[in-house]
Specification:
The complex is a heterodimer of chains A (577) and B (194). The two termini of chain A are 49 Å apart. Chain A has 20 helices and 25 strands. In chain A, strand 6, helix 7 and strand 7 form a beta-alpha-beta unit. Chain A has a 7-stranded mixed sheet, sandwiched between helices. In chain A, strands 15-14-16-17-21-20 form a 6-stranded parallel sheet, sandwiched between helices. Chain A has a 4-stranded mixed sheet with strand order 9-11-10-13, sandwiched between helices. Helix content of chain A is 35%, strand content 21%. Chain A folds into 4 domains: 208 residues, Rossmann fold, CATH 3.40.50; 96 residues, Rossmann fold (3-Layer(aba) Sandwich); 167 residues, Rossmann fold, CATH 3.40.50; 61 residues, Alpha-Beta Plaits. With 194 residues, chain B is an alpha/beta fold. Chain B has one domain: Pyruvate-ferredoxin Oxidoreductase, domain 3, CATH 3.40.920.10. Classes of the chains: A alpha/beta (577), B alpha/beta (194). At the A-B interface, strand 1, strand 8, helix 11 and strand 23 of A face helix 1, strand 2, helix 2 and helix 3 of B.
Chain lengths: 577, 194
């Protein structure tokens, strides 16, 4: 049957058809939908882990126990999981193990655009790159064959356009793959120096065998058309090349590490001008060049952002001048905190307290944007907790605080907080507990006790932070600005570690608005202080030469944050009738 | 250029049902036996931000993204967003725009100004611009949430697929209790400009 699937859904389907029994991940755009899809399929145990490192370790354990495994993460997730990933290359696998890395060129929803193809090279593991949904599904079969034949994890690298692009996929039936059983083999699974030393030569030899495998792999495909123009390409860039130059010859690489050297040399000998087209780094280009070939790549194609059919055309044809209609100026429409978002009040208060705010990854990173402009750093998951302690120890600046979401705290905040306590720190950490992993689409986490396939067990936040040795733990409602201000001020001044939990469910997991606010047009003096809370339900509207605040009632959630900042008490809350 | 590929651009503001509408159009093309590709972005981009979806169908489709200047039709759920995605359209393109204005945060905070007459701007550059108060029609059909069915009804007039196919796909995609309303909304959209 033919169905329309996203790359993520197709990977899940492919893994399922290949008999995968265990799957784990931490949600992260653009990889989230893989596990969400797998979780609904029969015969698969699928789970969210607290972070990607644990997700991979769960996967390695299941693989060691003999079953087929899928582990998925976004590109920066593989940084978190890099430690087990590097040594997994040495141990190899029991049951087939595929690690999906979903990269994000153009940073649609990420903090960097690192090119994870380098991980394949660094870890010396084979890498497959699909170029559409059909390949996402089909190549899962190839991935598990390679994994089990060559005793290696396989890196399955996709990008946002593949993950969230949709295409036609022929779906099939599930093939049950019997477990290979748990085999104890210290020389393979216990990476003591003595054992690991013996594994390394095997890894090198494995790579050489994979080169030969890639030479005859049908998906490393030479498409000979006109010989004037030849392209070496992979992933979504292949589609852009086909779109831009339908008559050109193409070497379409699918196993992109290690590369099939002879096939590349043969292709190069059969075309006149040779280009390498790839997004981000010159990963293929440098290796092709190392074969002594004269190719054009990053000299004409950008290293940053995504490619597109027109960028491919423009790189090859200097005279290509595409035309299109554009209007300007067009006001940008950046993402913003939703109306009623419980994070908003926290930023309003921290702004008032003139605190330096160390943050990280989540919806709350949007607190950095105007008009709130009250989040001052974002490096990676959990970073703010370590950073606030470092800044405190440096002894510079005024009030400081770390903010972190609940899901992010379980992911990477716990060790940072342990650091503060252990090293006699004085920092305040605000855990913005909205009861979900909001940005990626309302996934559960250890603090909710809601597991991917149903019931889990909850790890209560208060007991966790108290268990870490934090004695000052306060819980406040982020809709009550006055109380929050008092508590935050006290805790930032306290000369010992403290945690303030601001607790309110994300509006996306509540049944809907709790009320509506209205501006009394008589009382409003048009000062504009309320619109500085950055809510799309609020606007300054000009009427009869006077600018006054107005609330779009169909957008208002009734949180009352704007009402609390109004100096004239002109905003009233109206209960929903 | 690849011949015979039809390129549709859908755009609007996060939460308006842009992705669902594009999903229906793509499914209709699939069920009509065509190759289909679709591209969009989830995650950070959806928190009240600008949302788009490209749908391409034909005998064989390569790029999931429409090359700049090659879109045949734009289905815009909001006026400003119609302007934003114009670069993807050919100058012969048909523009279908819902006459709704949603101020972005940059306008609300006074950093930027909402264009005075987006529909007029579109008309100055495109031959075929259809401005529709889809919200009013959706309300007439029974629910303000049926805006995307109105827009799909309008779009369906210009695509070579059987209206019964549209309806069967649409019905499968909306909750049972909203089916009748959406079918009505689709009909109202389809009858526009006839």
């Amino acid at each position: 049957m033919k169905v329309l699937l996203s790359g993520d859904e197709a990977i899940a389907r492919g893994a399922w058809e290949e008999g995968v029994k265990v799957a784990s991940a931490y949600p992260g755009t653009p990889s989230t939908e893989i596990l969400e899809a797998l979780a609904t399929m029969p015969g698969v145990y699928a789970q969210w882990s607290p972070n990607e490192k644990v997700a991979l370790e769960v996967g390695i354990g299941a693989s060691m126990a003999g079953v087929r495994v899928l582990v998925a993460m976004k590109h920066v997730g593989l940084n978190v999981a890099a430690d087990p990933f590097m040594t997994l290359s040495y141990t190899g696998v029991g049951g087939g193990l595929v690690v999906v890395s979903a990269d994000d060129p153009a940073l649609y929803s990420s903090q960097n655009e690192q090119d994870n193809r380098h991980y394949a090279r660094m870890a010396k593991v084979p890498m497959l790159e699909p170029s559409d949904s059909e390949e996402c599904k089909r190549l899962m079969g190839e991935a598990y064959t390679i994994s089990e034949t060559f005793d290696t994890p396989v890196l399955f690298r996709i990008t946002t356009r593949i993950a969230h692009g949709k295409g036609v996929v022929e779906v099939g039936e599930r093939r049950e793959v019997p477990s290979r059983g748990l085999k104890l083999d210290p020389a393979k699974w216990v990476m003591l120096p003595n054992f690991a030393r013996d594994r390394h030569p095997l890894v090198e030899e494995r790579l050489e065998r994979l080169v030969s495998y890639g030479e005859s792999l049908p998906d490393n495909r030479m498409e000979m058309r006109e010989p004037q123009l030849g392209f070496i390409t992979s992933g979504v860039a292949y589609q852009y090349v086909r779109e831009a130059f339908p008559q050109a010859s193409v070497l379409k690489l699918t196993l992109t590490y290690p590369l099939p050297r002879d096939k590349i040399l043969e292709f190069a000998s059969r075309v006149k001008r040779l280009f390498v087209v790839e997004e981000l780094d010159p990963f293929l280009e440098e290796q092709v060049r190392a074969l002594g070939l004269d190719v054009v790549g990053k000299r004409v194609f950008p290293r940053v952002g995504e490619l597109s059919p027109e960028l491919v055309r423009a790189g090859v044809d200097k005279d290509y001048r595409p035309t299109w209609i554009s209007f300007s100026p067009i006001p940008p429409r950046p993402p913003t905190l939703c109306p009623g978002c419980p994070h908003r009040g926290v930023f309003v208060v921290l702004k008032r307290l003139k605190a330096t705010v160390f943050g990280d990854i989540g919806c709350y990173t949007l607190g950095a944007l105007p008009p709130l402009s009250t989040l001052h750093s974002c490096i990676c998951m959990g970073a703010g907790v370590g950073m606030v302690h470092g800044a405190d120890k440096a002894g510079e600046g005024g009030r400081k605080v770390a903010v972190i979401g609940d899901s992010t705290f379980y992911h990477s905040g716990i060790t940072g907080l342990a650091d503060i306590v252990y090293n006699d720190g004085v920092s305040t950490v605000v855990i913005m507990d909205n009861g979900t992993t909001a940005m990626t689409g309302k996934q559960g986490h250890p603090g909710t006790g809601v597991a991917l396939q149903g019931r889990g067990r909850r790890i209560p936040l208060e007991s966790l932070v108290k268990g870490l040795g934090v004695e000052r733990v306060r819980v406040v409602d982020p809709y009550h600005l006055g109380t929050m201000e008092e508590v935050l001020k006290e805790e930032m001044e306290a000369r010992e570690p403290s945690v303030v939990i601001t607790r309110r469910p994300c509006t996306l997991i509540t049944p809907g608005p709790i009320g509506t606010c209205r501006v009394d047009q008589e009382l409003c003096i048009g000062c504009g202080i309320c619109v500085k809370v950055g809510c799309i339900a609020l606007a300054m509207v000009e009427e009869g030469g006077e600018k006054k605040a107005r609330i779009a009632e169909h957008l208002c959630y009734g949180c009352g944050v704007c009402a609390q900042v109004c100096p004239k008490e002109a905003i009233g809350e109206v209960e929903n009738g | 250029m690849v011949r015979g590929v039809t390129n549709l651009v859908f755009c609007g503001v996060g939460g308006q049902g842009v992705l669902l509408a594009s999903e229906v159009a793509a499914q209709v093309a699939l069920e009509a036996g065509l190759d289909v590709k679709k591209s969009e972005v989830h995650g950070m981009a959806q928190r009240g931000g600008s949302v788009f979806s490209h749908v391409r169908f034909g005998e064989r489709v390569y790029s999931p993204v429409i090359p700049l200047g090659e879109g045949h039709m734009l289905v815009a759920f909001e006026e400003l967003e119609a302007l934003r995605y114009a670069p993807y359209l050919s100058n012969q393109a048909r523009v279908m725009v819902n006459t709704l204005r949603v101020n972005p945060i940059t306008v609300l905070s006074g950093e930027a100004t909402y264009p005075r007459d987006p529909v007029g701007m579109l008309r100055s550059r495109f031959l075929h611009v259809e401005a529709v108060d889809a919200l009013a029609l959706a309300v007439e059909a029974g629910s303000p949430r049926a805006v995307n069915s109105v827009m799909l009804g309008l779009l369906s007039r210009y695509l070579p697929f059987d209206p019964r196919l549209w309806l069967s796909v649409l019905e499968a995609r909306v909750p049972a209790r909203a089916r009748e309303i959406n079918v009505r909304a689709f009909g109202l959209g389809r009858e526009l400009f006839s």
